[in-house]
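Worked Example 4.2. Consider the chain below.
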Amino acid sequence: MTTAEPAAPTAAPSRAATTAAGPAPAVAEAAPAVAEEASAAAPAPVPPLAARAHAVGGSPVRDILAVTARPEMINFAGGLPAPELFDREGIAAAFQEVLTRTPAQALQYSTTEGEPTLRTALAARITARGLPTTPDDLLITTGSQQALSLLATALLEPGDTVLVENPCYLAALQVFGLAGARVVAVPGDRDGVDPGALEEAVRRERPKLLYLVPTFQNPTGRTMPAPRRAEIAAVAARQGLWIVEDDPYGELRYDGAPVPWIASLPGAGDRTVLLGSFSKVMAPGLRLGWLRAPDGLRRACSVAKQAADLHTPTLNQLAAARYLDVLDTHVQHVRAVYGERRDAMLAGLPSALPPGSRWSRPEGGMFLWVRLPEPYDTLALLPRVVEQNVAYVPGAPFYAGTPDPTTLRLCFVTQTPEEIAEGLRRLGRGLQG
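Applying the procedure from the previous section yields the following C-alpha coordinates:
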Protein backbone atom coordinates (compact mmCIF):
# COMPACT_ATOMS: atom_id res chain seq x y z
CA MET A 1 0.00 0.00 0.00
CA THR A 2 1.30 3.38 -0.86
CA THR A 3 0.65 6.67 0.86
CA ALA A 4 -0.18 9.93 -0.79
CA GLU A 5 2.47 12.55 -0.92
CA PRO A 6 1.74 15.65 1.22
CA ALA A 7 0.60 18.62 -0.77
CA ALA A 8 3.16 21.30 -1.35
CA PRO A 9 2.72 24.34 0.91
CA THR A 10 0.89 27.24 -0.64
CA ALA A 11 3.02 30.31 -1.05
CA ALA A 12 1.92 33.52 0.66
CA PRO A 13 0.63 36.13 -1.74
CA SER A 14 3.33 38.44 -2.96
CA ARG A 15 3.16 42.10 -3.88
CA ALA A 16 3.14 40.88 -7.48
CA ALA A 17 -0.22 39.24 -6.81
CA THR A 18 -1.79 42.63 -6.08
CA THR A 19 -3.31 44.04 -9.20
CA ALA A 20 -4.27 47.56 -10.06
CA ALA A 21 -7.85 46.69 -9.22
CA GLY A 22 -6.93 46.09 -5.58
CA PRO A 23 -5.71 43.29 -3.36
CA ALA A 24 -6.10 39.69 -4.27
CA PRO A 25 -9.19 37.90 -2.93
CA ALA A 26 -7.26 36.22 -0.06
CA VAL A 27 -6.23 39.57 1.31
CA ALA A 28 -9.71 41.12 0.83
CA GLU A 29 -11.30 38.37 2.97
CA ALA A 30 -9.28 39.51 6.00
CA ALA A 31 -11.38 42.71 6.42
CA PRO A 32 -14.55 41.05 7.85
CA ALA A 33 -12.43 39.15 10.38
CA VAL A 34 -10.96 42.40 11.68
CA ALA A 35 -14.47 43.86 12.00
CA GLU A 36 -15.63 40.81 13.94
CA GLU A 37 -12.69 41.14 16.34
CA ALA A 38 -13.50 44.82 16.90
CA SER A 39 -17.14 43.96 17.52
CA ALA A 40 -16.17 41.35 20.12
CA ALA A 41 -13.99 43.88 21.91
CA ALA A 42 -16.91 46.36 22.27
CA PRO A 43 -20.11 44.45 23.19
CA ALA A 44 -23.49 46.04 22.63
CA PRO A 45 -25.06 47.79 25.64
CA VAL A 46 -27.60 45.87 27.71
CA PRO A 47 -31.28 46.93 27.57
CA PRO A 48 -32.23 49.81 29.89
CA LEU A 49 -33.91 49.58 33.28
CA ALA A 50 -37.70 49.67 33.41
CA ALA A 51 -39.14 53.17 33.38
CA ARG A 52 -40.55 52.63 36.90
CA ALA A 53 -37.00 52.23 38.25
CA HIS A 54 -36.23 55.79 37.19
CA ALA A 55 -39.61 57.26 38.12
CA VAL A 56 -39.45 56.40 41.84
CA GLY A 57 -36.59 57.53 44.05
CA GLY A 58 -35.27 56.02 47.26
CA SER A 59 -36.54 56.76 50.74
CA PRO A 60 -35.42 60.15 52.10
CA VAL A 61 -35.84 58.73 55.60
CA ARG A 62 -33.30 56.00 54.93
CA ASP A 63 -30.98 58.51 53.29
CA ILE A 64 -31.12 60.66 56.43
CA LEU A 65 -30.50 57.63 58.66
CA ALA A 66 -27.38 56.78 56.64
CA VAL A 67 -26.04 60.32 57.07
CA THR A 68 -26.89 60.52 60.77
CA ALA A 69 -25.60 57.14 61.98
CA ARG A 70 -22.85 58.70 64.13
CA PRO A 71 -23.00 57.64 67.80
CA GLU A 72 -23.11 61.25 69.01
CA MET A 73 -26.25 61.91 66.94
CA ILE A 74 -29.66 62.12 68.64
CA ASN A 75 -31.84 60.90 65.84
CA PHE A 76 -35.52 61.81 65.79
CA ALA A 77 -35.65 60.92 62.08
CA GLY A 78 -36.09 57.16 62.16
CA GLY A 79 -39.21 55.09 62.62
CA LEU A 80 -37.40 52.36 64.51
CA PRO A 81 -38.56 50.63 67.69
CA ALA A 82 -36.30 51.01 70.72
CA PRO A 83 -33.84 48.08 70.51
CA GLU A 84 -33.25 47.93 74.28
CA LEU A 85 -36.92 46.97 74.67
CA PHE A 86 -36.74 43.90 72.44
CA ASP A 87 -37.58 40.83 74.52
CA ARG A 88 -34.39 39.03 73.59
CA GLU A 89 -34.77 36.28 76.15
CA GLY A 90 -38.41 35.60 75.35
CA ILE A 91 -37.88 35.55 71.58
CA ALA A 92 -34.76 33.39 71.95
CA ALA A 93 -36.75 30.94 74.09
CA ALA A 94 -39.47 30.77 71.43
CA PHE A 95 -36.92 29.98 68.71
CA GLN A 96 -35.20 27.43 70.93
CA GLU A 97 -38.46 25.63 71.70
CA VAL A 98 -39.43 25.49 68.03
CA LEU A 99 -36.01 24.18 66.98
CA THR A 100 -36.03 21.61 69.78
CA ARG A 101 -39.57 20.29 69.34
CA THR A 102 -40.22 20.63 65.59
CA PRO A 103 -36.88 21.15 63.82
CA ALA A 104 -37.87 19.40 60.60
CA GLN A 105 -40.96 21.58 60.23
CA ALA A 106 -39.21 24.78 61.28
CA LEU A 107 -36.40 24.40 58.74
CA GLN A 108 -38.57 23.23 55.84
CA TYR A 109 -40.52 25.03 53.14
CA SER A 110 -44.01 26.15 54.18
CA THR A 111 -47.31 27.05 52.56
CA THR A 112 -47.65 30.42 50.87
CA GLU A 113 -50.63 31.41 53.02
CA GLY A 114 -48.62 31.00 56.21
CA GLU A 115 -48.12 28.48 59.01
CA PRO A 116 -51.50 27.28 60.33
CA THR A 117 -50.42 27.67 63.96
CA LEU A 118 -49.59 31.36 63.45
CA ARG A 119 -52.71 32.10 61.42
CA THR A 120 -54.89 30.40 64.04
CA ALA A 121 -53.36 32.34 66.93
CA LEU A 122 -53.44 35.61 64.98
CA ALA A 123 -57.07 35.11 63.95
CA ALA A 124 -58.01 34.67 67.62
CA ARG A 125 -56.12 37.85 68.50
CA ILE A 126 -57.86 39.90 65.79
CA THR A 127 -61.26 38.48 66.79
CA ALA A 128 -60.62 39.50 70.41
CA ARG A 129 -60.01 43.07 69.20
CA GLY A 130 -63.46 43.25 67.63
CA LEU A 131 -63.17 41.86 64.10
CA PRO A 132 -64.33 38.22 63.74
CA THR A 133 -61.60 36.47 61.76
CA THR A 134 -60.75 32.89 60.80
CA PRO A 135 -57.31 31.54 59.87
CA ASP A 136 -58.43 31.29 56.24
CA ASP A 137 -59.06 35.07 56.17
CA LEU A 138 -55.33 35.74 56.63
CA LEU A 139 -52.19 35.77 54.52
CA ILE A 140 -48.86 35.97 56.38
CA THR A 141 -46.45 38.36 54.65
CA THR A 142 -42.79 39.28 54.94
CA GLY A 143 -43.56 42.47 56.83
CA SER A 144 -46.66 44.52 56.11
CA GLN A 145 -44.62 46.39 53.51
CA GLN A 146 -44.77 43.25 51.38
CA ALA A 147 -48.54 43.18 51.85
CA LEU A 148 -48.71 46.61 50.22
CA SER A 149 -46.61 45.40 47.29
CA LEU A 150 -48.79 42.31 46.85
CA LEU A 151 -51.93 44.44 46.82
CA ALA A 152 -50.42 46.73 44.21
CA THR A 153 -49.63 43.69 42.06
CA ALA A 154 -53.12 42.23 42.48
CA LEU A 155 -55.14 45.44 42.07
CA LEU A 156 -53.28 48.02 40.03
CA GLU A 157 -52.62 48.40 36.32
CA PRO A 158 -50.23 51.13 35.14
CA GLY A 159 -52.20 54.35 35.00
CA ASP A 160 -54.77 53.35 37.64
CA THR A 161 -55.51 55.93 40.30
CA VAL A 162 -54.87 55.54 44.03
CA LEU A 163 -56.22 57.98 46.59
CA VAL A 164 -54.17 58.74 49.70
CA GLU A 165 -54.13 60.98 52.76
CA ASN A 166 -52.11 64.15 52.62
CA PRO A 167 -49.51 63.73 54.06
CA CYS A 168 -49.12 59.98 53.61
CA TYR A 169 -46.86 57.11 54.68
CA LEU A 170 -43.80 57.52 52.46
CA ALA A 171 -43.15 53.85 51.61
CA ALA A 172 -46.74 53.46 50.41
CA LEU A 173 -46.13 56.26 47.93
CA GLN A 174 -43.09 54.33 46.70
CA VAL A 175 -45.09 51.11 46.24
CA PHE A 176 -47.84 52.83 44.26
CA GLY A 177 -45.29 54.72 42.19
CA LEU A 178 -43.47 51.51 41.26
CA ALA A 179 -46.81 50.01 40.20
CA GLY A 180 -47.23 52.89 37.75
CA ALA A 181 -50.27 54.29 39.54
CA ARG A 182 -51.43 57.89 39.60
CA VAL A 183 -51.41 58.95 43.24
CA VAL A 184 -53.94 61.64 44.16
CA ALA A 185 -54.09 63.25 47.61
CA VAL A 186 -57.50 63.77 49.20
CA PRO A 187 -57.89 66.93 51.31
CA GLY A 188 -58.50 66.44 55.01
CA ASP A 189 -58.39 68.02 58.44
CA ARG A 190 -57.18 67.11 61.92
CA ASP A 191 -59.46 64.02 61.84
CA GLY A 192 -58.09 62.71 58.54
CA VAL A 193 -59.56 62.44 55.05
CA ASP A 194 -62.61 64.64 54.50
CA PRO A 195 -65.58 62.41 53.42
CA GLY A 196 -67.06 65.04 51.11
CA ALA A 197 -63.71 65.61 49.40
CA LEU A 198 -63.31 61.84 49.14
CA GLU A 199 -66.66 61.39 47.41
CA GLU A 200 -65.84 64.16 44.96
CA ALA A 201 -62.41 62.64 44.25
CA VAL A 202 -63.92 59.20 43.62
CA ARG A 203 -66.39 60.63 41.11
CA ARG A 204 -63.70 62.68 39.39
CA GLU A 205 -60.76 60.27 39.41
CA ARG A 206 -62.44 56.81 39.37
CA PRO A 207 -59.74 55.30 41.61
CA LYS A 208 -59.13 51.65 42.42
CA LEU A 209 -58.39 52.12 46.10
CA LEU A 210 -58.03 54.48 49.04
CA TYR A 211 -54.98 53.94 51.25
CA LEU A 212 -55.24 54.98 54.92
CA VAL A 213 -53.35 54.68 58.20
CA PRO A 214 -56.30 55.62 60.42
CA THR A 215 -54.71 54.94 63.82
CA PHE A 216 -51.62 56.90 64.97
CA GLN A 217 -50.87 57.80 61.39
CA ASN A 218 -47.39 57.98 59.96
CA PRO A 219 -46.29 60.79 59.73
CA THR A 220 -48.82 62.92 61.64
CA GLY A 221 -49.67 60.67 64.61
CA ARG A 222 -53.37 61.53 64.25
CA THR A 223 -56.19 59.03 64.77
CA MET A 224 -59.37 59.10 62.70
CA PRO A 225 -62.43 59.18 65.03
CA ALA A 226 -65.08 56.45 64.78
CA PRO A 227 -67.75 58.68 63.16
CA ARG A 228 -65.32 59.74 60.44
CA ARG A 229 -64.41 56.10 59.80
CA ALA A 230 -68.07 55.26 59.34
CA GLU A 231 -68.45 58.10 56.83
CA ILE A 232 -65.43 56.88 54.87
CA ALA A 233 -66.84 53.35 54.82
CA ALA A 234 -70.19 54.67 53.55
CA VAL A 235 -68.51 56.55 50.68
CA ALA A 236 -66.62 53.40 49.67
CA ALA A 237 -69.87 51.39 49.70
CA ARG A 238 -71.75 53.98 47.61
CA GLN A 239 -69.03 54.62 45.08
CA GLY A 240 -67.39 51.21 44.67
CA LEU A 241 -63.92 51.54 46.15
CA TRP A 242 -61.34 49.35 47.88
CA ILE A 243 -60.06 50.62 51.24
CA VAL A 244 -56.58 49.55 52.35
CA GLU A 245 -56.47 50.05 56.13
CA ASP A 246 -52.87 49.87 57.33
CA ASP A 247 -52.53 49.38 61.10
CA PRO A 248 -48.89 48.87 62.17
CA TYR A 249 -49.17 51.00 65.33
CA GLY A 250 -52.65 50.24 66.70
CA GLU A 251 -51.45 48.29 69.76
CA LEU A 252 -49.20 51.15 70.87
CA ARG A 253 -51.90 53.17 72.64
CA TYR A 254 -50.88 55.29 75.65
CA ASP A 255 -54.17 56.99 76.47
CA GLY A 256 -57.67 57.41 75.09
CA ALA A 257 -60.15 54.73 74.03
CA PRO A 258 -59.58 52.22 71.20
CA VAL A 259 -61.33 52.99 67.91
CA PRO A 260 -62.84 50.19 65.79
CA TRP A 261 -61.17 49.16 62.56
CA ILE A 262 -62.87 50.38 59.39
CA ALA A 263 -62.93 46.73 58.33
CA SER A 264 -65.32 45.99 61.21
CA LEU A 265 -67.88 48.65 60.23
CA PRO A 266 -71.17 47.95 58.40
CA GLY A 267 -70.79 47.93 54.64
CA ALA A 268 -66.98 47.82 54.74
CA GLY A 269 -66.27 44.12 55.15
CA ASP A 270 -66.40 43.18 51.47
CA ARG A 271 -64.15 46.04 50.34
CA THR A 272 -61.61 46.65 53.13
CA VAL A 273 -58.16 45.09 53.35
CA LEU A 274 -56.64 45.23 56.84
CA LEU A 275 -52.85 45.13 57.17
CA GLY A 276 -50.94 44.49 60.38
CA SER A 277 -47.39 43.93 61.54
CA PHE A 278 -45.37 42.38 64.36
CA SER A 279 -42.49 44.77 63.67
CA LYS A 280 -43.49 47.44 66.19
CA VAL A 281 -44.63 45.12 69.01
CA MET A 282 -42.32 42.11 68.65
CA ALA A 283 -39.24 42.81 66.49
CA PRO A 284 -38.82 44.22 62.97
CA GLY A 285 -35.98 41.82 62.19
CA LEU A 286 -38.47 38.93 62.13
CA ARG A 287 -40.10 40.55 59.06
CA LEU A 288 -43.60 39.33 59.90
CA GLY A 289 -46.79 41.02 58.79
CA TRP A 290 -50.25 39.97 57.72
CA LEU A 291 -53.08 40.78 55.36
CA ARG A 292 -56.79 40.19 55.98
CA ALA A 293 -58.87 40.49 52.82
CA PRO A 294 -61.98 39.15 51.08
CA ASP A 295 -61.47 35.75 49.45
CA GLY A 296 -60.88 36.72 45.83
CA LEU A 297 -58.38 39.46 46.57
CA ARG A 298 -56.59 37.39 49.20
CA ARG A 299 -56.15 34.51 46.72
CA ALA A 300 -54.76 36.92 44.13
CA CYS A 301 -52.27 38.21 46.71
CA SER A 302 -51.28 34.62 47.52
CA VAL A 303 -50.44 34.00 43.87
CA ALA A 304 -48.42 37.22 43.78
CA LYS A 305 -46.56 36.10 46.91
CA GLN A 306 -45.77 32.73 45.35
CA ALA A 307 -44.03 34.60 42.56
CA ALA A 308 -42.24 36.92 44.99
CA ASP A 309 -40.81 34.66 47.69
CA LEU A 310 -42.88 31.43 47.91
CA HIS A 311 -43.54 32.00 51.60
CA THR A 312 -42.43 33.93 54.69
CA PRO A 313 -39.67 32.12 56.66
CA THR A 314 -41.14 29.10 58.46
CA LEU A 315 -38.89 29.34 61.51
CA ASN A 316 -39.83 32.95 62.16
CA GLN A 317 -43.54 32.18 61.83
CA LEU A 318 -43.44 29.27 64.27
CA ALA A 319 -41.39 31.23 66.80
CA ALA A 320 -43.83 34.16 66.56
CA ALA A 321 -46.79 31.82 67.09
CA ARG A 322 -45.09 30.53 70.24
CA TYR A 323 -44.27 34.07 71.42
CA LEU A 324 -47.87 35.27 71.03
CA ASP A 325 -48.58 33.57 74.37
CA VAL A 326 -46.58 36.28 76.17
CA LEU A 327 -46.83 39.18 73.70
CA ASP A 328 -49.49 41.09 75.64
CA THR A 329 -47.25 41.31 78.71
CA HIS A 330 -44.39 42.60 76.56
CA VAL A 331 -46.62 45.16 74.81
CA GLN A 332 -47.77 46.54 78.18
CA HIS A 333 -44.14 47.22 79.08
CA VAL A 334 -43.42 48.85 75.72
CA ARG A 335 -46.50 51.09 76.03
CA ALA A 336 -45.41 52.32 79.44
CA VAL A 337 -41.91 53.25 78.21
CA TYR A 338 -43.04 54.82 74.95
CA GLY A 339 -45.75 56.80 76.73
CA GLU A 340 -43.10 58.37 78.98
CA ARG A 341 -41.01 59.26 75.96
CA ARG A 342 -43.95 60.83 74.16
CA ASP A 343 -44.67 62.94 77.23
CA ALA A 344 -41.02 63.99 77.46
CA MET A 345 -41.06 65.21 73.87
CA LEU A 346 -44.34 67.05 74.32
CA ALA A 347 -42.96 68.75 77.43
CA GLY A 348 -39.80 69.93 75.63
CA LEU A 349 -41.30 71.20 72.38
CA PRO A 350 -42.54 74.63 73.58
CA SER A 351 -39.03 75.81 74.46
CA ALA A 352 -37.36 74.16 71.45
CA LEU A 353 -39.57 75.45 68.64
CA PRO A 354 -39.97 79.03 67.41
CA PRO A 355 -43.05 81.00 68.48
CA GLY A 356 -46.08 80.24 66.36
CA SER A 357 -45.20 76.55 65.90
CA ARG A 358 -47.91 73.90 66.20
CA TRP A 359 -47.64 70.17 66.82
CA SER A 360 -49.79 67.08 67.27
CA ARG A 361 -50.45 65.24 70.53
CA PRO A 362 -50.87 61.60 69.48
CA GLU A 363 -52.64 59.12 71.75
CA GLY A 364 -50.21 56.43 70.64
CA GLY A 365 -47.83 55.30 67.95
CA MET A 366 -44.33 56.64 67.35
CA PHE A 367 -44.51 60.09 65.75
CA LEU A 368 -45.21 63.77 66.34
CA TRP A 369 -45.96 66.16 63.46
CA VAL A 370 -44.71 69.72 63.70
CA ARG A 371 -45.61 72.78 61.64
CA LEU A 372 -43.24 75.73 62.00
CA PRO A 373 -44.37 79.27 61.17
CA GLU A 374 -43.64 80.70 57.74
CA PRO A 375 -41.14 81.25 56.19
CA TYR A 376 -39.32 78.30 57.80
CA ASP A 377 -38.31 75.58 55.33
CA THR A 378 -37.48 72.33 57.15
CA LEU A 379 -35.71 70.79 54.17
CA ALA A 380 -33.37 73.76 53.81
CA LEU A 381 -32.81 73.89 57.58
CA LEU A 382 -31.91 70.22 58.01
CA PRO A 383 -28.13 70.52 57.32
CA ARG A 384 -27.86 73.28 59.90
CA VAL A 385 -29.76 71.18 62.43
CA VAL A 386 -27.60 68.11 61.71
CA GLU A 387 -24.54 70.21 62.59
CA GLN A 388 -25.99 70.27 66.11
CA ASN A 389 -25.97 66.42 66.13
CA VAL A 390 -29.73 66.04 65.98
CA ALA A 391 -31.99 65.09 63.07
CA TYR A 392 -35.63 65.04 61.97
CA VAL A 393 -37.42 64.17 58.73
CA PRO A 394 -38.62 67.14 56.65
CA GLY A 395 -42.30 66.88 55.87
CA ALA A 396 -42.11 67.44 52.11
CA PRO A 397 -41.47 63.79 51.02
CA PHE A 398 -44.69 62.63 52.70
CA TYR A 399 -46.93 64.68 50.42
CA ALA A 400 -48.47 63.29 47.24
CA GLY A 401 -49.79 66.77 46.48
CA THR A 402 -48.21 70.15 47.05
CA PRO A 403 -45.94 69.85 50.11
CA ASP A 404 -45.98 72.11 53.13
CA PRO A 405 -42.31 73.17 53.53
CA THR A 406 -42.81 74.18 57.16
CA THR A 407 -43.57 70.64 58.39
CA LEU A 408 -41.37 67.97 59.94
CA ARG A 409 -41.73 64.57 61.62
CA LEU A 410 -40.22 63.62 64.98
CA CYS A 411 -39.96 60.05 66.27
CA PHE A 412 -40.06 59.92 70.07
CA VAL A 413 -39.68 56.19 70.89
CA THR A 414 -35.98 55.51 70.31
CA GLN A 415 -34.45 57.89 72.87
CA THR A 416 -34.75 58.09 76.65
CA PRO A 417 -36.46 61.12 78.21
CA GLU A 418 -33.02 62.57 79.05
CA GLU A 419 -31.83 62.11 75.47
CA ILE A 420 -35.06 63.62 74.17
CA ALA A 421 -34.56 66.72 76.34
CA GLU A 422 -31.00 67.15 75.07
CA GLY A 423 -32.04 66.51 71.48
CA LEU A 424 -34.71 69.18 71.67
CA ARG A 425 -32.19 71.69 73.05
CA ARG A 426 -29.97 70.93 70.06
CA LEU A 427 -32.96 71.22 67.72
CA GLY A 428 -33.75 74.66 69.15
CA ARG A 429 -30.18 75.85 68.54
CA GLY A 430 -30.25 74.54 64.98
CA LEU A 431 -33.55 76.21 64.15
CA GLN A 432 -32.37 79.50 65.60
CA GLY A 433 -29.24 79.41 63.43
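DSSP finds 15 helices and 15 strands in the chain. The radius of gyration is 30 Å. Compare this with Example 4.1 before moving on.
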